[in-house]
Design a protein that fits this description.
- This protein has 206 residues and is α+β, with helices and mostly antiparallel strands.
- It has 9 helices and 4 strands.
- It has a 4-stranded antiparallel β-sheet, with helices on both faces.
- It starts with a strand and ends with a strand.
Length: 206
């Protein structure tokens, strides 16, 4: 089975602050302008909803209002997807062509490529974790992770230092072309974020 990685450029702190914000205007905008999107999501998860999972909009309401959340662990995925929907609506989608679809341990392979180029401050494999903002319940799917502005600045500094060393030695690390392409895509995400103060990257693996 293949996986996909969706990555968004946004103000990380402001996005996390939407959780529990009780922003009723935001909910109304979503309900009014994205009804078709919500309906498609409900159709896709219709079996789970029939089994007690919240609808896409009900999950969004819970996330924005800070609860209540179902105690059934089996339906927690809906809150994770609701948070991703908030990122999709308030952020900019970044090119994910090197990561969607992907199989197996591809994210860890790319992390090895990042490390080979001196970058340890960020990890694409972290997008597969469950780092959802409190008080969202744990959900295995979708995985979620974030690269903060501070981490991104550190990673770009690490890359520049490593690049200078490589240029001086003339010895580039032996990376497969597809890994180099994926690493360059990651650097592109970081440079987009670095160009906008306070912006970072939030990614979801499903």
């Amino acid at each position: 089975m293949s996986s996909g990685l969706s990555v968004y450029l946004l103000d990380v702190a402001a996005t996390r602050a939407l959780v529990g914000s009780r922003d009723e205007q935001l909910l109304e905008v979503i309900r009014t302008n994205f009804a078709d999107d919500l309906a498609r999501a409900d159709d896709y998860f219709s079996d789970a909803i029939e089994g007690g999972a919240p609808t896409a909009y009900e999950a969004l309401e819970a996330v924005v209002r800070g609860g209540p959340f179902s105690e059934d662990q089996e339906v927690a995925f809906q809150y994770g997807y609701a948070y991703e929907r908030l990122c999709e609506l308030t952020g900019s989608f970044l090119d994910n062509s090197s990561f969607t679809p992907h199989r197996g341990d591809w994210l860890s392979v790319v992390d090895q490529g990042l490390r080979a180029l001196g970058i340890t401050a960020v990890s694409v494999e972290s997008f597969g974790y469950s780092d959802l903002p409190d008080p969202l319940p744990y959900a295995f799917t979708p995985g979620c992770g974030e690269w903060t502005p501070t981490r991104i600045a550190q990673a770009l500094e690490q890359f520049e230092s490593a690049k200078q060393a490589i240029d001086a030695s003339g010895q580039a690390p032996p990376l497969e072309p597809e890994v180099v392409e994926a690493v360059m895509q990651c650097l592109g995400w970081m440079r987009h974020a670095a160009a906008k103060p306070g912006f970072g990257v939030i990614g979801f693996r499903a």
